[in-house]
Amino acid sequence: MKHLKKIPPFYFLILIGLLVSCKVSPQPITYGSDGCHFCSMTIVDRQHAAELVTEKGKVFKFDAVECMLNHLKDVDNTTIAMFLVNDYDAPGELVDAAEANYLICDEIPSPMGEYLTAFGTKEGVEKAFKENGGETFTWPELKLRFEVTD
Questions:
Q1: Where are the chain's structural domains?
Q2: Cβ pair 105, 135 in contact under 8 A
Q3: What's the pLDDT tens digit per position in 22-38?
Q4: Residue 129 near residue 103, CB atoms below 8 Å
Q5: What b/e readout covers 71-108, taking b as 16+ CB neighbours within 10 angstroms?
Q6: pTM (global) more than 0.85
Q7: How far is CA 95 from CA 16, 125, 131, in A?
Q8: How many CB atoms lie within 10 A of CB 27?
């Protein structure tokens, strides 16, 4: 305990700051203000945005799932802790990209023109598919289509 008394309080504040700043968690997207890391467009669409968080806690935000997938071609995917996508049926709600279901359909436009939409539930994508047609994908199938390797 004597050694702790010799350490100035300033160092404890620095340590706490470092511990808090390395937290690996998503950040809310500020729609209309945040820019897409891949294409630099302002993120405005609450139904198509995406986000990834690295193991070191750095957050990258995207205006569309296709921008995130294209970004993944240029980075080491093993350094990514979280892949998140907006649920089309719950605008603004980020869900785990690996658990989401996807639809590519000309009837549901996305910001970058790939017509790619994520759904948080299997029922959501099935309903959209019945109403609009298109092609459904899982996360691994979508990564193959976009030629993203792990």
A1: 25-145
A2: yes
A3: 678 999 999 999 999 99
A4: yes
A5: bbeeeeeeebebbbbbbbbeeeebbebeebbbbbbeeb
A6: no
A7: 29, 14, 23
A8: 13
